[in-house]
Amino acid sequence: MKFISSLLIILSIVSICLSQTSSSVSSVSSSSSSSQECLPGYSGVNCTFNHNVTGYVPAYAHGGYVLFWGDFGETHDGLSVLIGGTTCSIFVAYFWMIKCYAGVLPENTFYNVTVTQNGITWFQDNYYRYQTNCVNGETLNGYCQCETGFTGELCDVESSPYINTISSSSIDGGHVIADGWFGQDPQIGTFSILIGNKKLRIVQIGSTRFSGVAPQGNGSQDITIYNSTNNQLLYTGINSFQYDSTLCYGDCFANGICNNGVCECFYPWTGPYCFEFNSCQCPQI
Ligand SMILES: *[C@@H]1O[C@H](CO)[C@@H](O)[C@H](O)[C@H]1NC(C)=O
Ligand SMILES: *[C@@H]1O[C@H](CO)[C@@H](O)[C@H](O)[C@H]1NC(C)=O
Ligand SMILES: *[C@@H]1O[C@H](CO)[C@@H](O)[C@H](O)[C@H]1NC(C)=O
Ligand SMILES: *[C@@H]1O[C@H](CO)[C@@H](O)[C@H](O)[C@H]1NC(C)=O
Ligand SMILES: *[C@@H]1O[C@H](CO)[C@@H](O)[C@H](O)[C@H]1NC(C)=O
């Protein structure tokens, strides 16, 4: 009994606190005569929620359901959606999504969108589109999202080669791997790739990755990609290659441990990269 009554006291305290919070919020809205006094995201005489649209799934060109994603709040008084000035009939509205039925809207054309509720209007020009002709990509929010290696409004233009990431090498050079875009069917001889002014030797190359052997060097160096047929410069990555003085060439060929750029070789291996076999020190068999 004692437990239940103290629980009831706690509950009533909580509800008093809650009602005080909500009355303080409503006093902000009722006393405010300008939008300045509303909480962020609210405006108008009554501090109404400012809804917005963040994305959509279009209908087919001959009509159908459209989904609009966004923040629409809990109240949808007088909700209307216009696409290109034509009513999209509301099917259902949630705080995160509005579903409406659109009539014929010819594809590949942009339409303005107006979403009105609670006396507030959200408008965006050239917003809605049912894009059907993306060549190497897919439609998202009316725009083509291109696959890697393609660009242009319809993803019909092949990108120039570029490097997104490339691994570092020791100051003595060594094996590196690069990710990016290197054309649809690149061959080892398609490009000349330079680190600083020295040539990187390509070992293997595909559309999105190549591996090769970096020359000796130090510090940060530019990477450049040339068309090896006509020597046209296709890409420059300013300071995008790093020589790391703590790395060892070939990682000591697994015959030693790289300690801050110096190979400490396992017996009987020797040499700067633990690649030489010290036969003199070999135990007699
Ligand atoms: C949409 O509204 C929400 C809530 O007011 C806000 O947090 C968000 O930043 C808005 N997004 C855009 C794109 O305006
Ligand atoms: C603000 O709220 C009052 C009282 O509910 C209502 O009469 C009035 O129409 C509202 N104004 C707007 C702009 O929504
Ligand atoms: C939106 O598009 C419709 C149809 O093209 C047009 O009549 C209307 O004026 C546009 N609204 C705005 C605000 O641009
Ligand atoms: C690093 O490169 C600079 C020129 O870029 C050169 O002067 C310097 O000697 C190099 N240092 C080493 C340790 O190789
Ligand atoms: C390189 O240049 C040749 C000759 O101009 C051209 O045919 C080829 O398409 C170019 N390759 C790349 C990858 O740009």
UniProtKB/TrEMBL annotation:
<feature type="domain" description="EGF-like">
    <location>
        <begin position="144"/>
        <end position="155"/>
    </location>
</feature>
<keyword id="KW-0732">Signal</keyword>
<dbReference type="InterPro" id="IPR014756">
    <property type="entry name" value="Ig_E-set"/>
</dbReference>
<feature type="signal peptide">
    <location>
        <begin position="1"/>
        <end position="19"/>
    </location>
</feature>
<protein>
    <recommendedName>
        <fullName>EGF-like domain-containing protein</fullName>
    </recommendedName>
</protein>
<dbReference type="InterPro" id="IPR053331">
    <property type="entry name" value="EGF-like_comC"/>
</dbReference>
<dbReference type="InterPro" id="IPR000742">
    <property type="entry name" value="EGF"/>
</dbReference>
